[in-house]
């Protein structure tokens, strides 16, 4: 079982890294920024691969009534927002900056759980959300490659992510966001989604959060070497503060699970 969990975790990290780097390459280097086309392409590829996986018995798809499908419509709108805004933001922002801003969605989720579900929040998780919020809030003032449009779309993206995860239920395999790109991205996006589902089903929340954190760290680190990213000491401090906040979030998840 331990070996299986490690394999699933490493597969997820590989898909995460490959998906983000491929998307960033197509969106920034090749300048192919057509989110609607990305959405159509990835929906087609994802649908075909999902159907094949279902036929092969790799995934189980339960049939749902029309009322259930109608209940998914708000989440579907948010999902489209995630794709569109995410691809816009990723095309303009460095990957470490994008991931740091994206982490603010955790603050939205935590706030919803605290205020509406009245769930108990550990001190470590509260500190984590404060660090994540502080890191994202300081970045615009210290980013030497500041792009107003990139930050604008990143804000829309993180609110869509936060609302989707905290408020709405979404169909089995469609909870993970796509950022779109070229042909390779369609396949990578599906396998990233598939490996994420396996990771969440097989591992405890704390272990799953640790693998996601590890995937973000290696993706952010490698992206700095592959793409043009100018990070000042202040911006680096913001990124490290965000990493500390997410590390605390992982700690709180492992402690509560």
How many domains? The number is: 1
Strand content: under 5%
Given the helix and strand composition, which structural class is it? mainly alpha
Radius of gyration: 18 Å
Order of helices and strands: HHHHHHHHHHH
Shape: globular
Individual helix count: 11
Strand segment count: 0
Mean pLDDT equals: 77
Question: What share of the residues lie within helices?
Answer: over 70%
- Report how far the terminal alpha carbons are from each other: 18 Å
Low-confidence stretches: 169-183
**Main sheet record:** none
Notes on the protein architecture:
With 257 residues, this protein is mainly alpha-helical. The chain has one domain (2-256). The protein has 11 helices and no strands. Residues 169-183 have low confidence and may be disordered.
Write the layout of secondary structure elements.
Elements: H1 2-29, H2 35-55, H3 66-71, H4 73-92, H5 95-102, H6 104-115, H7 123-142, H8 148-166, H9 183-202, H10 205-226, H11 233-256
Summarize the structure.
With 257 residues, the protein is mainly alpha-helical. The protein has helices spanning 2-29, 35-55, 66-71, 73-92, 95-102, 104-115, 123-142, 148-166, 183-202, 205-226, 233-256.
Features:
257 residues, globular, mainly alpha, 78% helix, single chain
């Amino acid at each position: 079982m331990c070996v299986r969990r490690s394999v699933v975790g490493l597969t997820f990290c590989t898909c995460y890294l490959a998906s983000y780097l491929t998307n960033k390459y197509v969106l920034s280097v090749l300048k192919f920024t057509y989110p609607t086309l990305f959405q159509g392409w990835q929906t087609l590829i994802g649908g075909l691969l999902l159907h094949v996986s279902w036929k092969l018995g790799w995934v189980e798809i339960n049939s749902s009534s029309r009322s259930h499908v109608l209940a998914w419509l708000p989440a579907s709108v948010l999902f489209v927002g995630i794709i569109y805004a995410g691809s816009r933001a990723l095309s303009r922002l460095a990957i470490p900056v994008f991931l740091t801003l994206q982490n603010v969605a955790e603050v939205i989720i935590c706030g919803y759980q605290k205020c509406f579900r009245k769930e108990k929040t550990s001190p470590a998780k509260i500190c984590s959300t404060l660090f994540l919020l502080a890191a994202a809030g300081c970045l615009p003032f210290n980013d030497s490659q500041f792009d107003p449009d990139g930050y604008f779309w990143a804000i829309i993206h993180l609110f869509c992510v936060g609302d989707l995860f905290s408020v709405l239920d979404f169909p089995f395999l469609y909870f993970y966001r796509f950022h779109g790109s070229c042909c390779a991205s369609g396949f990578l996006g599906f396998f990233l989604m598939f490996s994420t589902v396996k990771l969440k089903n097989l591992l405890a929340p704390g272990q799953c959060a640790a693998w996601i954190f590890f995937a973000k760290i290696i993706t952010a680190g490698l992206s700095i070497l592959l793409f043009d990213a100018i990070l000042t000491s202040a911006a680096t401090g913001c990124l490290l503060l965000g990493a500390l906040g997410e590390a605390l979030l992982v700690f709180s998840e492992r402690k509560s699970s």
